[in-house]
Amino acid sequence: MERFLLLLDGPWATLIVRELLQGPRRFSELRDALEGISAHTLTHRLRRFEAHGIVTRTVYAEIPPRVVYELTPLGESLRDILYAMAAWGQSVTNQQLMAATD
Amino acid sequence: MERFLLLLDGPWATLIVRELLQGPRRFSELRDALEGISAHTLTHRLRRFEAHGIVTRTVYAEIPPRVVYELTPLGESLRDILYAMAAWGQSVTNQQLMAATD
Question: Taking CB atoms and an 8 Å cutoff, what residues of chain B touch A89?
């Protein structure tokens, strides 16, 4: 569990994986899809994922060069967990979600 | 997904649920089991979980009064997700985990 929490730490990490579960993405595509994320945070997160073997970064020698991010098999193996998270979220009623917390 | 991330935000939230998946717990038992958590954080988290319908808080009119926290069915329904997280974490090699990230 701790390893999961270490690698998928915080909402951005999970939302980036969710985006990449739909297929390879360029940096700008990720940035557009993840409303509110800064270029710095996205860069840092992708670099961490790359280092931890969750994402690959491929540079295509085109003009201009094209850089594509893609899930590795380890990253891909998060699919079921993220689907389960989404399904659980749907089982939470609006009333429960909006409950005031002091 | 966003609802999940909203309610299970951060490692402590997930680790508290993991602990309660093993059965009802008193505050002191939770605090002992969750190394490094402050009383303030634990109190705040439990209150949030209670408000969102994930945990119940039962006071037994004993001397001194006994307070027990327990997962609701909604909280209990997180079991499979947390097991999947733990299983995924075990599939991450030490080498991947320790990879340097600048």
Answer: 1-4, 7
